[in-house]
Specification:
262 residues; alpha+beta; Deoxyribonuclease I, Chain A; globular; EC 3.1.11.2; magnesium; hydrolase; ExoIII-like; metal-binding
């Protein structure tokens, strides 16, 4: 079973690239972030024609998340992150797909910091940590997949000095991510590539892509029951090199269902 996450940075603009990636790499489940489209503008028909079933929650101009399945329909569990009924930003979607609980998330960027956007980022992170605590020991296999907007360590960025003031590298952001992992989650990409500089995001400016000046901010975290099934993890970097590409590349894991802890 292959599960992927991809910040598409505008699904209407990137739809041809998305469909090409889905056809070429054939994930079984794909979590999408930053749709930048209202619900009515989601390309459900185009995706269905290509063999994909979809669950989505859009938002005008910003945010938006979706879960795609190559098998049956994703079965919706929740459409928002618990903890703040007044939060109207479309950043979280949770569904059951082929026996796995898939949580697709788009954690706030938080820039500029300090300020209200960074405060919102940290408050959202605390809500995520609280909810994740109910999932990590679940009897069901669970994956938290998405754009976490956190560079966990200096090893996960080409040059930390250039991003010293960015919200993605702030001590509070990193400490929150570390506390999340400490619940018992496995960071799949780092688990299988502990000594490799792996990036998932390259800024559009100053030739970051051409210089491989990247950051690792897209993560797939596996709970205790799912972690034993991890076999492979990687990044489809070729997608970032396409014309009119997103500034992210799809990140994925391959799991052996028979190895899921009973």
């Amino acid at each position: 079973m292959k599960i992927a996450t991809f910040n598409v940075n505008g699904i209407k603009t990137r739809l041809p690239n998305l469909l090409e990636w889905l056809a070429r790499e054939q994930p079984d489940v794909a979590c999408l972030q930053e749709l930048k489209a209202l619900d009515a503008a989601f390309p459900v028909d185009e995706l269905r024609e290509a063999g994909w079933r979809s669950l989505w929650k859009g938002q005008r101009s910003w945010n938006g998340v979706a879960i795609l399945s190559r098998g049956g329909e994703p079965l919706e569990i929740r459409r928002e992150l618990p903890g703040d009924a007044a939060d109207e930003q479309s950043r979280y979607l949770e569904a059951a797909v082929d026996g796995v609980v898939v949580a697709c998330l788009y954690l706030p960027n938080g820039n500029p910091q300090p300020g209200p956007k960074f405060d919102y980022k940290l408050a959202w992170f605390e809500r995520l940590i609280a909810h994740a605590r109910t999932l990590v020991e679940s009897e069901h296999p669970v994956v938290l997949a998405g754009d976490f907007n956190v560079v966990p360590t200096d090893f996960d960025i080409y040059n930390p000095r250039s991003w010293k003031k960015d919200a993605l590298l702030q001590p509070q952001s990193r400490e929150a991510y570390a506390r999340l992992l400490a619940q018992g989650w496995t960071d799949a990409l780092r688990q299988l590539h502990p000594d490799e500089a792996v990036f998932t995001f390259w800024d559009y400016f100053r030739q970051h892509w051409q210089r491989n000046a990247g950051l690792r901010i897209d993560h797939l975290l596996l709970n205790r029951r799912l972690a034993p099934a991890l076999r492979e993890a990687g990044v489809d970097t070729w997608v970032r090199g396409k014309e009119r590409a997103s500034d992210h590349a799809p990140t994925w894991v391959r799991l052996e269902p028979a190895a899921i802890r009973a």
